[in-house]
């Protein structure tokens, strides 16, 4: 615990970790943080916090921080420290050379959830306005891009439907593919309060997460311990019960949804092959348990679905998201408190990075680049001709780079080498590029392949906003001077100016003013309003000046809700004699994502390595004992981890986290991805596991 001195003043800001988006008072003595105290009236946390936000901010002043820009001609050369002017000028000249030599399609940008909304906005603006392409993507590509797609298709908006507080009105809580205790701890505590009050709990997860048997008072009524990769089959089985047992709320469906789409879906799920009995063997879940869970969801009162990456990171991630929306519409569990479809977005600003147009097919506010009116609006505001062709997604950029067609990358706050699948493919692509610019706090794994390093500013050193999983826009406030001299948006605008496209902002608030002017769902957002209200949930406009806690109340954003037939297609990642186990991945409470921040705090002592969970039956078969080193081999690669023997995982399934670069979890994950969005299938990798000698 880092607490020293007596604070002299405090500044309210927002946690830079998970998608709960807790407010904190940074209590300061001069430029030193004395402690972080959760803000009593914080919109998302109401005075609560978890171990990360409360104690794990030491990375911001860690000795590993790089504070001087660096350049090098080749990744084999040593880094050369230079001033900002030289670094910016070198990066601009290289990108200009690449544009002339290979064309604009050879250049793109990647943003991250670690960026503020304002930083994401100026980065996508730079790529679009300077280079005339839409090659800009964000880390949501590898986590919640199926949420963006699936909810837009069914409900009309790429975001969760509820406020977190809504759970206090739920009679039934249905968690699919999420582990809130570890991933969203403060919201998990709120959920537990509601469960202690008597709400029912259904969990669908291949692994026994904490909430399955948290305490004598908090236990899942039903744990659907399905095989990894079978979510769509589960959703169909539940829908089959709801349809064939007469549990559909037809009056709601008739009034609020496209009836024809409902009929097509109803007739599909009613088929015998979608019954729990027909799918039980594929899922590994008892049919009667599925029937009971479906009845509880449909008839147990106000029922809310919460889901996470266990839904999205699959080859049918988007299909499952649409299937979940189907369930909510069919049972009228949408459009009021206590119900809804709630993606638990993992990172602090993953919602915002998508909202701000860091998508190759969408401008800010989820408007397609091919829409002439939207393009004309941005062309007029930005003074440049813009492309109507969707650009490259991250995996497309990597594929094109491997083919020699993509040469220049501006990567802000994202570590694609550690966080994207099939590390070998990522590093090969980066090696093929001629100018990789990394903007980050630390020399991360991606920076090993960079030619320019722009030192970034931590969340304590900049102004801006983050948007959490409930669409809540919260202020990030600067409490100390940037150690590198600049806030991140200033670096991006300096690069843009060097590329011949100056952007005129004096403060992050002016970027938000431009966002508000060009984005209907942000029309009423300003730093002044955030100062007055603390936070606000979009849509925030003339009609909803104080924001929108619950969406789709009287009608869906798309007008009528639309059902989609969700046909189960088994993953192509199959087990066989050579790769007999399925590896699935997740996270733990004290670490965060690729660990760049939490590994540089005192938390490291609690979970210093990623481990492999394996069932006692599978361990015994292989002669593996607790703590043994085990080799894990997949079709993509191999790595070594220490074994933990536990019945939390089922027979035939192993599990690990991906917080430590040396553990190489993504060396073994494959290129398989969601059919609609290319979100990687992190949750299903066929592997062999065997005991190896001590490293
Ligand atoms: Fe930060 Fe999430 Fe913990 Fe809140 S729950 S303190 S946002 S990591």
UniProtKB/TrEMBL annotation:
<dbReference type="GO" id="GO:0051539">
    <property type="term" value="F:4 iron, 4 sulfur cluster binding"/>
</dbReference>
<dbReference type="GO" id="GO:0022904">
    <property type="term" value="P:respiratory electron transport chain"/>
</dbReference>
<keyword id="KW-0560">Oxidoreductase</keyword>
<keyword id="KW-0479">Metal-binding</keyword>
<dbReference type="GO" id="GO:0043546">
    <property type="term" value="F:molybdopterin cofactor binding"/>
</dbReference>
<dbReference type="GO" id="GO:0008863">
    <property type="term" value="F:formate dehydrogenase (NAD+) activity"/>
</dbReference>
<feature type="domain" description="4Fe-4S Mo/W bis-MGD-type">
    <location>
        <begin position="8"/>
        <end position="64"/>
    </location>
</feature>
<comment type="similarity">
    <text>Belongs to the complex I 75 kDa subunit family.</text>
</comment>
<keyword id="KW-0004">4Fe-4S</keyword>
<dbReference type="GO" id="GO:0051537">
    <property type="term" value="F:2 iron, 2 sulfur cluster binding"/>
</dbReference>
<comment type="similarity">
    <text>In the C-terminal section; belongs to the prokaryotic molybdopterin-containing oxidoreductase family.</text>
</comment>
<dbReference type="GO" id="GO:0046872">
    <property type="term" value="F:metal ion binding"/>
</dbReference>
<keyword id="KW-0408">Iron</keyword>
<keyword id="KW-0677">Repeat</keyword>
<dbReference type="GO" id="GO:0015942">
    <property type="term" value="P:formate metabolic process"/>
</dbReference>
<dbReference type="GO" id="GO:0003954">
    <property type="term" value="F:NADH dehydrogenase activity"/>
</dbReference>
<keyword id="KW-0411">Iron-sulfur</keyword>
<keyword id="KW-0001">2Fe-2S</keyword>
<protein>
    <submittedName>
        <fullName>Formate dehydrogenase, alpha subunit</fullName>
    </submittedName>
</protein>
<dbReference type="GO" id="GO:0016020">
    <property type="term" value="C:membrane"/>
</dbReference>
<dbReference type="GO" id="GO:1990204">
    <property type="term" value="C:oxidoreductase complex"/>
</dbReference>
């Amino acid at each position: 615990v880092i607490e020293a001195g007596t604070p002299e003043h405090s500044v309210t800001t927002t946690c830079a970790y998970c998608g709960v988006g807790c407010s904190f008072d940074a209590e300061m003595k001069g430029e030193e943080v004395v402690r972080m105290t959760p803000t009593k009236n914080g919109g998302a946390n109401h005075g609560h916090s978890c171990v990360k936000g409360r104690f794990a901010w030491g990375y911001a002043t860690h000795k590993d921080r790089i504070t001087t820009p660096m350049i090098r001609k080749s990744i084999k050369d040593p880094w050369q420290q230079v001033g900002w002017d030289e670094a910016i000028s070198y990066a601009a000249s290289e990108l200009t050379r690449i544009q002339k030599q290979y064309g604009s399609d050879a250049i793109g940008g990647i943003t991250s959830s670690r960026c503020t909304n304002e930083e994401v906005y100026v980065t996508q603006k730079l790529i679009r306005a300077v280079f005339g392409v839409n090659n800009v993507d964000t880390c949501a590509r590898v986590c919640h891009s199926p949420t963006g797609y699936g909810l837009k298709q069914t409900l009309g908006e790429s975001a969760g439907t509820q406020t977190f507080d809504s759970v206090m009105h739920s009679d039934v809580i249905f968690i699919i593919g999420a582990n809130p205790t570890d991933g969203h701890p403060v919201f998990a505590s709120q959920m537990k309060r509601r469960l202690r009050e008597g709400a029912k709990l259904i969990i669908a997860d291949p692994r026994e997460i904490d909430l399955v048997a948290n305490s004598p008072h908090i236990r899942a009524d039903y744990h659907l311990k399905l095989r990894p990769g079978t979510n769509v089959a589960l959703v169909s089985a539940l829908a089959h019960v709801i349809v064939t047992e007469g549990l559909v709320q037809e009056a709601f469906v008739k009034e609020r949804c496209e009836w024809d789409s409902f009929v097509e879906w109803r007739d599909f799920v009613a088929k015998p092959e979608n019954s729990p009995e027909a799918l039980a063997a594929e899922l590994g879940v008892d049919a009667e348990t599925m029937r009971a869970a479906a009845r509880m969801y449909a008839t147990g009162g106000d029922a809310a679905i919460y889901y996470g990456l266990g839904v999205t990171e699959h080859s049918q991630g988007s299909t499952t998201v649409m299937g979940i929306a189907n369930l909510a519409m069919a049972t009228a569990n949408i459009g009021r408190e206590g119900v809804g479809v709630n993606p638990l977005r993992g990172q602090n600003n993953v919602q915002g990075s998508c909202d701000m147009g860091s998508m190759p097919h969408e401008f800010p506010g989820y408007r397609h680049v091919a829409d002439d009116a939207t393009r004309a609006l941005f062309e007029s505001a930005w003074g440049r001709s813009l492309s109507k062709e969707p650009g490259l997604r991250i995996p497309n950029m990597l594929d094109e780079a491997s083919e020699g067609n993509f040469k220049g990358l501006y990567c802000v706050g994202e570590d694609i080498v550690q966080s994207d699948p099939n590390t070998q493919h990522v590093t090969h692509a980066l090696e093929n590029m001629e100018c990789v610019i990394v903007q980050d706090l630390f020399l991360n794994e991606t920076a090993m392949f960079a030619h320019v390093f722009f030192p970034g500013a931590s969340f304590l050193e900049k102004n801006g906003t983050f948007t959490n999983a409930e669409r809540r826009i919260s202020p990030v406030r600067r409490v100390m001077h940037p150690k590198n001299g600049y806030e991140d948006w200033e670096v991006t605008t300096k690069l843009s100016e060097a590329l011949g496209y100056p952007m005129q902002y004096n403060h992050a608030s002016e970027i938000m003013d431009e966002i508000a002017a060009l984005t209907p769902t942000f029309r009423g957002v300003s730093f002044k309003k955030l100062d007055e209200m603390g936070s606000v949930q979009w849509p925030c406009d003339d009609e909803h000046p104080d924001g929108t806690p619950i969406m789709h109340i009287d009608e869906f954003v798309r007008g009528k809700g639309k059902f989609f037939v969700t046909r189960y297609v088994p993953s192509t990642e199959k087990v066989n004699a050579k790769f007999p186990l399925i590896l699935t991945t997740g996270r733990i409470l004290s670490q965060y994502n690729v660990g760049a921040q939490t590994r540089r705090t005192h938390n490291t002592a609690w979970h210093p390595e990623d481990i492999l969970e394996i069932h006692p039956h599978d361990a015994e078969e292989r002669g593996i004992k607790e703590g043994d080193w085990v080799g894990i081999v997949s079709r993509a690669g191999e790595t070594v981890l220490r074994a933990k023997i536990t019945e939390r995982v089922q027979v035939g399934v192993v599990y690990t986290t991906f917080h430590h670069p040396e553990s190489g979890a993504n060396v073994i994950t494959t290129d398989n991805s969601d059919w609609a969005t290319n979100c990687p299938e992190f949750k299903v990798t066929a592997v062999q596991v065997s005991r190896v000698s001590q490293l």
